[in-house]
Design a protein that fits this description.
By secondary structure, the protein is α+β, with helices and mostly antiparallel strands. It contains 26 helices and 16 strands.
Length: 759
């Protein structure tokens, strides 16, 4: 895609247009980042077009005014569509429509001014405008979720006839606009490009025409799904996650190479002149250097993915692409500028070896200063200091007569060689050593080794006759997949019953641990394991003061260096208030599971007692009864009265119910008959510094006080909130912490209020 983009801007040939069309079509059928790539490209092309148009006009002022009006109105319309400002109600869609109409009018006015000065043929021949027309017309029919959600509908609710009508209406309208744009640009060529794009789109979204409805689902649902996912904030990572954490940890070569490219580009290319040395006059297009495209793509990707709702480590590859292209350009110029033949003749090889030793001594010197302070630090630094100075003197002696610039280039090449080796080392460690260890920051929400170990134990214990295995709760992942070929595997959901005693092995997620023993009785041994874990997340809530504390404290500098270089947390753990969280058996954050194995199986491996055999007397047998529920309230969903993983419930003094609707990030207040009285709360993450009172991040529990007020355990905002009976915010308290400090919480999951109102 990027090569085709650059080729069109550089050469304005059809091959680049075909490549852009093909890569865009394939991107849209495999990955949601296609919308971001296209948006980045459209912004770039708009900037290149405006710059070229201004150079072509003898009096660009009127064109600039129209263009400024179009850009301003378009940005305002987009902001109103995405940000949903409160208090506008039905006025917002009308205002957005007016802004879009104004932007279109200003754009047409700007084009008329430009065409009046240089002619329509010259305008249509501008490569940046051609790409704008092509990409915009291809993508426009896929943007229907914007107007549908703007009108207050769920763009994914295909059961709603109004939504279906709006989706189809938008696609028809957008296709009409796209055809008009294509004909206005290049009527002969546009049909071929559009035909290729929609042929690929139709084949894959209908699954080779076996699912005709997939065409509408893909056109209207692709963007709609990701718009709804933005509020989920998957990962919950801070906005600096890529720039300050993942890129420095894994893509430091790309960072350093991009900085080198910027330095190497300080000498600008001389202005182009005609054959006779005169200024050739206005040109029909704007040249965009390869470095310019790479730097734009690097910076815009970093910005876009840092602002997007989902921030996960695997998305770093899209950010790295632009940085690596820029780094490649810089390293190419660096290497090309070295006189290799002269260097080999004049002692360049031994000088290069001394340069590598100098860099090693420099690294040792930096580590010594970061690890110690005072006389101890100076003593550790003395040897690498002397060795580095000796290597540097020897290198300059061997290269005497070389220009100083050549010596610096040689050192820079060797420095990047070292960074390349370190990058390969980090990649090897991540792929083959720490591939399932939370010590690696790329291992995010990853199954710990235990689930596979448990599976191997189950297979070994069963022998030729597979065991009967039940799993439930959060253990659904990964055992719904691991046990897919186990004939007697049973998922019991979140309600363990005595039926589970028919099974040889029962695997329960952490969310069910309090319910398992009454259901299973005394006939099972239990074993605890880590099921899922995340990398250390101490970087959440990073402030300038915390960052400076790392730089200023020698012990912390050394600990962070060991994490960066070796993923070694031992020194960091010694400085932590909870060192046990960095040890594999007690790593935090993690999610656990418990495995129950029949005692007779443990005593005689491979034995299969008859189903239902009791190995011990059941202490609960005489106390069991099976009444049907008197009342059932709710269903899965996001509407009032519907729930997603409700985890806490309280009965108020007046008999009404308060429910912690956990995955919907809200509290629902219900009458005794189940009708909805109030609903309050929406998602916000305190780790990002934007979680005012009344917002939640997976509240797990709720309690009603004797005065009718309500307390909520706002679990992953690490605080308790206090509300009136009607949901009006009163107060909140709690700070994030994993130690023993008062008023510090780490994921509070339950609370209660006694008769005197004490929490």
């Amino acid at each position: 895609f990027l090569y085709g983009l650059w080729r069109v801007l550089e050469r304005n040939d059809a091959a680049g247009l075909w490549l852009v069309t093909l890569s865009t079509a394939l991107h849209f059928v495999i990955k949601e980042t296609a919308f971001l790539y296209t948006a980045q490209a459209l912004v770039l092309l708009l900037g290149v077009f405006l710059a070229a148009a201004v150079r072509m006009l003898p009096n660009p002022r009127p064109f600039q005014l129209y263009a400024a009006g179009a850009v301003t109105a378009g940005l305002a319309a987009l902001a109103l569509t995405l940000l949903e400002p409160a208090g506008m109600g039905a006025v917002r869609p009308l205002l957005v429509l007016a802004l879009v109409a104004g932007a279109a009018g200003c754009a047409l006015g700007a084009l008329r001014r430009l065409a009046g000065a240089v002619g329509w043929d010259a305008v249509r021949g501008m490569p940046s405008l051609g790409l704008l027309a092509l990409l915009g017309s291809l993508v426009l029919p896929l943007l229907g979720p914007f107007p549908v959600s703007l009108l207050g509908f769920d763009p994914l609710d295909f059961t709603n006839p109004t939504v279906l009508l709006l989706d189809v209406g938008w696609i028809v309208l957008a296709l009409g606009i796209s055809i008009a744009v294509g004909i206005g640009w290049n009527p002969a060529a546009w049909w071929r490009y559009a035909g290729l794009f929609w042929a690929i789109f139709a084949v894959f979204y209908t699954t080779f025409f076996s699912n005709p409805g997939g065409l509408l689902n893909g056109a209207a649902g692709g963007l709609g799904y990701w718009l709804t996912q933005q509020a989920e904030q998957k990962g919950g990572q801070p906005h600096y996650y890529y720039a300050l954490i993942l890129m420095p940890l894994y893509e430091f070569l790309a960072y350093a190479g991009t900085l080198l490219a910027v330095v190497m580009a300080r000498h600008r290319r001389p202005a182009q002149t005609g054959p006779d040395g005169a200024d050739p006059g206005p040109q029909p297009g704007a040249r965009l250097s390869f470095l310019g495209l790479s730097l734009y793509w690097a910076c815009s990707s970093l910005l876009v993915f840092s602002l997007a709702g989902e921030r996960m480590p695997w998305l770093t590859v899209h950010i790295t692409l632009g940085f690596l292209l820029a780094a490649g350009w810089g390293l190419g110029r660096l290497v090309d500028g070295l006189d290799w033949r002269a260097g080999l003749r004049r002692g360049g090889l031994p000088a290069a070896l001394l340069g590598l030793l100098f860099l090693a001594a420099l690294a040792s010197l930096g580590q010594a200063f970061s690890a110690g302070e005072g006389p101890a630090g100076l003593g550790q630094a003395l040897l690498p200091l002397l060795a580095g100075a000796a290597c540097l003197v020897g290198m300059f002696y061997l290269l005497r007569g070389w220009p100083a610039g050549q010596v610096y280039r040689l050192l820079a090449v060797e420095g990047f060689l070292v960074l390349g080796v370190l990058t390969a080392r980090a990649a090897y460690r991540a792929a083959f050593i720490d591939y399932d260890s939370a010590a690696e920051y790329l291992v995010y929400a990853h199954a710990a080794p235990a689930p596979k170990q448990v599976l191997a134990q189950i297979e070994a214990l069963g022998g030729e006759q597979p065991l009967r295995v039940a799993y439930g709760g959060e253990a659904l992942y990964p055992y719904w997949w691991y046990l897919r070929r186990t004939p007697e595997a049973y998922y019991f959901g979140t309600t363990p019953t005595r039926q589970l005693r028919q099974y040889d092995v029962v695997i329960a997620g952490e969310d069910l641990l309090g319910q398992m023993e009454p259901a299973l009785g005394e006939g099972y041994h239990s074993f605890d394991y880590q099921r899922l874990w995340w990398p250390n997340q101490d970087y959440w809530g990073l402030t300038w003061a915390r960052a400076w504390g790392v730089v200023a404290d020698p012990a912390m500098r050394s600990a962070v260096w060991q994490i960066w270089l070796n993923r070694d947390y031992r020194a960091y753990a010694r400085l932590s208030s909870s060192p046990q969280q960095f040890e594999a058996p007690t790593w935090s954050p993690s999610r656990r599971m418990r495995v129950y194995v029949r005692k007779d199986l443990v005593a005689w491996p491979g034995a299969r007692p008859p189903a239902g055999t009791e190995t011990d007397e059941d202490p609960y047998a005489a106390r069991l009864n099976g009444p049907a529920p008197l009342q059932s309230i709710g269903a899965a969903g996001e509407q009032p009265g519907q729930f997603q993983s409700p985890r806490g419930l309280a009965v108020a003094p007046d008999g009404s119910l308060y429910v912690a609707d956990t995955d919907n990030h809200r509290v629902q207040h219900l009458a005794p008959d189940g009708s909805v009285l109030q609903v309050w709360g929406q998602y916000a993450d305190a780790g990002q510094g934007t979680a005012p009172g009344g917002t939640f991040n997976e509240p797990w529990d709720v309690a009603a006080g004797p005065d009718g007020t309500v307390y909520v355990a706002d679990t992953w905002n690490h605080r308790i909130q206090h509300f009136s009976a009607r949901g009006d915010f009163i107060d909140m308290w709690g700070t994030f912490g994993q130690g023993q400090q008062p008023d510090a919480f780490w994921g509070p999951r339950s609370l209660a209020v006694d008769g005197e109102g004490r929490v």
